[in-house]
């Protein structure tokens, strides 16, 4: 968009159109000042222009999504693998240990749940090789509360209008339609049907602070449109009013719950003692949890690192050599910091060259990773302590930056050097041992200024975007 970027008057005009179009289309967030009321809302941050995405890599990301769905599902059913992979982590990381305890406890009691629903998002960046060719590299897979499938279904229309205002209607017509919220909802519908109780509701397990409610409402509305009742409750509500009957059916305020869709519960600060008890109650129930606790554990960074070890994928997906090859092609270098000679070598390698790596704890939600000088300092401090095993080390992906404007309420309009992260939503439903749905459900492109190493849209760093395939 070089011609556009140079024309300041055109950019100013397009930005005004863009913001109003976003508000009209429902690209909305509640404000920081009033996070739990819809009296005052604003637009969710987004780019002025769609960002270029290599079409071959875009297709590759879609093509591997069903494989990732199968993989996550296989891990969630493999107790031996989860136990062995997380053994070192649960000794040093209290949060993962508590999740793991619930996992073991519900398995020992015997699962009441027989229908399983996975909604995940596999995130990638386009790593720029020495010869300049970009390669698709996975950042992580989110198996709980993967967000922005709703709001992003509305950004293509906004960007289409912006391009038209800028005299690029041909380019506008090339933007792809995208509706993850519908795909996610169809997974929930399937799980609800298989649960088999027509009067039962779907419960969205939501945060105390609900700034991103409109994103969730997009999925909710798809369910209401299909005559499925949706209720929104917090852990606190479950603690106070949730109960199980003899068959471990879950009831909230007297209503049977068929599906629990978590948009909360992935960071330690979501839990106090009562919330842990509420989580245990939900996990023990017959309701379809999206995700169940095993699938949440399958999304930990330690599992991601273990998957990159030679032979691991083959064991988890026996007889699926092509799926294994497609998955492996997206892996960046991942390294264990477990105690021992190998871990010592890895720690020394990272300390010597910190800019080549990212140091990741077992946390979700952005803003937790360590880079550069900070990585070096932290690793130096813990290099001889078991604390280091709570982290994994990953090669840093280095995408080619591009210029764009990031539109954010109350911020001046200025051009930034940006990089993008592509996410593909996956949805699957399993009944007993049989996979009854396995799909890619749409995509999310997020873009941020290069000066931020970390952080997503909710963390206030990245903004919503639309891919423009090149
Ligand atoms: P979280 O679970 O907190 O979202 P991520 O692994 O997605 O953790 O990392 C957060 C952000 O940090 C990503 O959105 C990306 O911008 C950046 N990041 C993570 N891993 C890498 C990497 N290997 N190379 C470059 N940037 C990375
Ligand atoms: Mg992430």
Automatic annotation (TrEMBL):
- Name the residues that bind ATP: 140, 301, 360-369, 371, 394-397, 421, 448, 454
In terms of Gene3D superfamilies, this protein maps to: 3.30.1490.50, 3.30.1490.80, ATP-grasp fold, B domain, Glutathione synthase, substrate-binding domain superfamily, eukaryotic, Glutathione Synthetase, Chain A, domain 3
Q: How is the cofactor bound?
A: Binds 1 Mg(2+) ion per subunit.
**Stored InterPro entries:** Glutathione_synthase (IPR005615), Glutathione_synthase_a-hlx (IPR014042), Glutathione_synthase_C_euk (IPR014709), Glutathione_synthase_N_euk (IPR014049), GSH-S_sub-bd_sf (IPR037013), GSH_synth_subst-bd (IPR004887), PreATP-grasp_dom_sf (IPR016185)
Q: Does the keyword Amino-acid biosynthesis apply?
A: no
Where does the chain bind Mg(2+)? 140, 142, 364
**Which range is the signal sequence, renumbered to this chain?**
none
- Quote the pathway field: Sulfur metabolism; glutathione biosynthesis; glutathione from L-cysteine and L-glutamate: step 2/2
Q: Which reaction does it catalyse?
A: gamma-L-glutamyl-L-cysteine + glycine + ATP = glutathione + ADP + phosphate + H(+); gamma-L-glutamyl-(2S)-2-aminobutanoate + glycine + ATP = ophthalmate + ADP + phosphate + H(+)
Mention any Pfam family matching this sequence: GSH_synthase
The domain of life is Eukaryota
Swiss-Prot/TrEMBL cofactor(s)? Mg(2+)
- Give a GO cellular-component term: cytosol
Q: Sum up the protein's function in the record's words.
A: Catalyzes the production of glutathione from gamma-glutamylcysteine and glycine in an ATP-dependent manner. Glutathione (gamma-glutamylcysteinylglycine, GSH) is the most abundant intracellular thiol in living aerobic cells and is required for numerous processes including the protection of cells against oxidative damage, amino acid transport, the detoxification of foreign compounds, the maintenance of protein sulfhydryl groups in a reduced state and acts as a cofactor for a number of enzymes. Participates in ophthalmate biosynthesis in hepatocytes.
Q: PANTHER family of this UniProt entry?
A: GLUTATHIONE SYNTHETASE (PTHR11130:SF0)
Official protein name in the record:
Glutathione synthetase
- What's the source species for this entry? Stercorarius parasiticus
Gene that encodes the chain: Gss
């Amino acid at each position: 968009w070089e011609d556009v970027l140079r024309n300041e008057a055109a950019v100013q005009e397009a930005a005004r159109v863009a913001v109003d179009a976003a508000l009209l289309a429902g690209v909305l967030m509640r404000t920081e000042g009033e996070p739990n009321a819809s009296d005052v809302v604003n637009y969710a941050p987004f780019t002025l222009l769609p960002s270029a995405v290599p079409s071959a890599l875009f297709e590759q990301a879609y093509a591997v999504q069903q494989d990732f769905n199968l993989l996550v599902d296989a891990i969630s059913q493999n107790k031996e693998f989860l136990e062995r992979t997380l053994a070192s982590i649960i000794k040093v990381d209290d949060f993962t240990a508590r999740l793991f305890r619930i996992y073991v406890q519900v398995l020992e009691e015997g699962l009441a749940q027989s229908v399983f629903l996975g909604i995940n998002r596999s995130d990638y960046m386009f790593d720029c090789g020495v010869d300049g060719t970009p390669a698709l590299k996975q950042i992580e897979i989110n198996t709980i509360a993967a967000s922005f499938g709703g709001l992003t279904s509305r950004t293509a229309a906004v960007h289409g209008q912006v391009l038209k205002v800028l005299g690029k209607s041909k380019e506008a017509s090339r933007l792809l339609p995208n509706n993850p919220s519908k795909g996610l909802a169809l997974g929930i519908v399937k799980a609800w049907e298989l649960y088999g109780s027509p009067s039962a509701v779907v419960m969205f397990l939501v945060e105390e602070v609900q700034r991103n409610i409109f994103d969730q409402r997009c999925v909710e509305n798809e369910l209401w449109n299909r005559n499925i009742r949706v209720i929104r409750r917090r852990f606190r509500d479950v603690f106070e009013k949730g109960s199980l009957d003899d068959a471990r059916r879950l009831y909230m305020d007297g209503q049977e719950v068929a599906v629990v869709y978590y948009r909360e519960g992935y960071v330690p600060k979501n839990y106090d003692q009562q919330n842990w008890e509420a989580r245990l109650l939900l996990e023990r129930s017959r309701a379809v949890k999206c995700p169940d606790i095993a699938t949440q554990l399958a999304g930990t960074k330690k599992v991601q690192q273990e998957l990159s070890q030679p032979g691991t994928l083959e064991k988890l997906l026996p007889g699926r050599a092509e799926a294994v090859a497609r998955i492996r092609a997206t892996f960046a270098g991942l390294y264990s910091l477990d105690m021992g000679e190998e871990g010592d070598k890895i720690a020394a390698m990272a300390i010597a060259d910190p800019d080549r790596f990212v140091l990741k704890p077992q946390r979700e939600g952005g803003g937790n990773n360590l880079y550069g000088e900070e990585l070096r300092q932290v690793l130096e401090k813990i290099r001889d302590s078991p604390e280091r095993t709570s982290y994994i080390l990953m090669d840093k992906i280095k995408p080619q930056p591009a210029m764009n404007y990031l539109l954010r309420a109350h911020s001046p309009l200025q051009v930034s050097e940006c990089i993008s992260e592509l996410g593909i939503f996956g949805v699957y439903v399993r009944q007993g041992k049989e996979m009854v749905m396995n799909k890619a459900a749409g995509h999310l492109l997020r873009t941020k200024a290069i000066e931020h190493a970390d952080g997503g849209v909710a963390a206030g760093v990245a903004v919503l975007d639309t891919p423009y395939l090149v």
